[in-house]
Amino acid sequence: MDNAGKKSLFITLEGGEGSGKSTLIKRLVARLTALGNTVVTTREPGGTSGAEEIRNLLVKGSAERWDVTSEICLFYAAREDHLYRLIRPALEDGKIVICDRFFDSTRAYQGQLGIRESNIIKALEENIVGPTMPDITLILDIDVETGLTRANSRNNIDGDDKEGRFEAKKIEFHQKLRDAYLEIARNEPERCKVIDATKTPDEIEEIAMDLIAQKFSISLKEA
Ligand code: TMP
């Protein structure tokens, strides 16, 4: 989205399991709000009541619950509702939208699995995301073992209703996932910025704010 003369910004956060997206989002909201912006935080899959219902189908249950094509369609059904009801209206209202995961997650999680999947994803991206591309995507990069240890300790707290379907996939899946994110960043260096997620939360916050300010100094100052 072109931000010249506008205050709206679409920021997405991406990364493997346990990469620290939630912590960074809370900190970014505090910083950007203090600068006078109206910030909306949301997540995928989810963000609207319909998309949250679809989320339950996707993140709970056994790792093999869905075949990958069904999974892609469900993620995109949720994404369409989210874009239509929440993301686009908020951006049109001049707000900053921070979304915990967006279409890069589908590319990285489902797209790594085959050519057919990649083609379906590309067509859905063009038709559903269309021009509503993130202005900046922060990719939190962490080694697979550390990330999964963090994510599993979080899920153990959740009890029987836990959202561990993707974390339960094999370690090779998570390694490919990390590689897929790094490849996305290499292919779109203007939009995608990789942050070393093993740094401290304070350091990560500063790096992220610098990246946002460098790219959108006018929007942030004029807000
Ligand atoms: P979360 O744990 O970050 O809330 O995300 C839920 C899970 O859904 C996470 O394991 C990543 C996965 N996911 C995909 O596989 N494809 C997608 O398009 C999205 C948005 C999430």
Compose a concise summary of this entry.
The protein has eight helices and five strands. With 223 residues, it is α/β, with parallel strands linked by helices. The model is unreliable at 1-5 (pLDDT under 50).
Describe this structure in words.
The protein is α/β, with parallel strands linked by helices and about 220 residues long. The protein has a single domain (about 10-215), classed as P-loop containing nucleotide triphosphate hydrolases (Rossmann fold, 3-Layer(aba) Sandwich), CATH 3.40.50.300. Helix content is about 55%, strand content about 15%. The protein has eight helices and five strands, in the order E-H-E-H-H-E-H-H-E-H-H-E-H. The chain has helices spanning about 20-35, 50-60, 70-90, 105-110, 115-130, 145-160, 170-185, 200-220; strands at about 10-15, 40-45, 95-100, 135-140, 190-195. Strands 2-3-1-4-5 form a five-stranded parallel sheet, with helices on both faces. Helix 2 packs antiparallel against helix 3 and helix 4 (about 105-110) packs across helix 7 (about 170-185). It is globular, with a radius of gyration of 17 Å. The two termini are about 15 Å apart. The structure holds thymidine-5'-phosphate (TMP). Thymidine-5'-phosphate binds next to helix 4.
Order of secondary-structure elements: EHEHHEHHEHHEH
**Structural class, from helix and strand content?**
alpha/beta
CATH architecture field: 3-Layer(aba) Sandwich
Helix content: 55-70%
